[in-house]
Design brief:
heterodimer; A: 4 strands; B: 7-stranded mixed beta sheet; globular
Chain lengths: 68, 252
């Protein structure tokens, strides 16, 4: 099964992964703030992930790991 | 099975770049190229002056931090003293195309066997968004608040086209990192630029059209769109010189 994991405390909340996701299943957290003070990116529907790794390719901080 | 993970040649340090800055993407592409060629142990990187000045914190290879613009000169020395090492420079447009233009042109003309990764974001990032030699006509920056006036300060420099007129370089390509497809092409180009050096072929330069959301005054998403709308029409993507191709034709 496809699985995307974020190193949340390294995220700067730029949102480039959200833009790149073809399934539109990523969003910035609305209530949780990470150690650096940003709203980190997170996945909202793991089951819909197709492991295309577009999010990881566009992530400037290299915090996304994609498994399948 | 892991489909995508951080390359081994990148350290765990959190990069200091602004949110959405594409420097991080290009750092990763360089690290992936180093990993794929298995040259981590014998690579020496030259960090520039500019936003990437602290690049030595992010790669697990040996790094030298050169004076402003002098990275190709330092790389020349390192490579000539240690020809078995793989030497790359990572430079921005204020470094490579302004103060370091002489070093860039002459190392290309000499055909030094080094790899240059050139980040072109059309602005001085670290110093706060001043006009660079590569700023587009009409572009608003801190030092051109009414837009770049070509009557007064002249035209932007297309570095790849200019260097491609020299006989020295082996390989020159311009790529962009504004979407997934272009990032993949950029990876191929950077890998080839490193491979050329491993094979001893000579000077390879990859110009990467990059964004600067902070100093352009845009969101990261808008900045990537601006690369597509404004930069690519002025700086067309493509291979400007590849002696593999031209010499193949000549032999036939």
């Amino acid at each position: 099964m496809a699985r995307v994991t974020f190193e949340k405390d390294k995220c700067k909340g730029c949102g480039l992964c959200i833009e790149a996701c073809p399934k539109k299943i990523l969003q910035l957290s609305e209530d949780e703030i990470n150690l650096r003070g940003y709203y980190p990116a997170m996945i909202i529907d793991q089951d819909k992930c197709i492991a295309c790794s577009f999010c990881a390719i566009m992530c400037p901080d290299c915090i996304i790991t994609v498994e399948k | 099975m892991v489909v995508f993970q951080k390359p081994k040649s990148l350290t765990d340090t959190v990069m200091h770049y602004c949110p959405g800055c594409t420097h991080g993407i290009v750092h990763r592409l360089v690290a992936e190229a180093i990993d794929e060629l298995g040259i981590e142990g014998r690579t020496i990187g030259i960090a520039p002056v500019g936003c990437a000045v602290m690049a030595y914190d992010y790669f697990t290879v040996d790094m030298v931090q050169a004076a402003h613009g002098r990275a190709p000169a330092v790389a020349t020395g390192v490579k000539r003293a240690n020809p078995e090492n793989i030497v790359f420079t990572y430079q921005g447009d204020g470094d490579l195309a302004a103060i370091g233009m002489a070093e860039t042109v002459h190392s290309a003309a000499r055909g030094e066997n080094i790899t240059i990764v050139f980040i072109n974001n059309a602005i001085y990032g670290m110093t706060g968004g001043q006009m660079a030699p590569t700023s587009l006509p009409g572009q608003v920056t801190q030092t051109s608040p009414y837009g770049r006036d070509i009557q007064q300060v002249g035209y932007p420099i297309r570095v790849s086209e200019m260097l491609a007129t020299l006989d020295g370089p082996q390989y020159i390509e311009r790529v962009a990192v504004n979407n997934v497809k272009n990032v993949r092409n950029a990876k191929k180009a950077i890998l080839k630029a490193f491979k050329n050096q491993v094979d001893g072929k000579g000077f390879s330069l990859v110009e990467v059209l990059s964004s600067c959301p902070t100093n352009w005054g845009k969101t990261p998403q808008q900045a990537l769109e601006l690369i597509e709308e404004n930069m690519i029409p002025y700086y067309p993507l493509g291979v400007y010189k590849d002696r593999d191709l031209t010499e193949g034709v000549a032999k036939e």
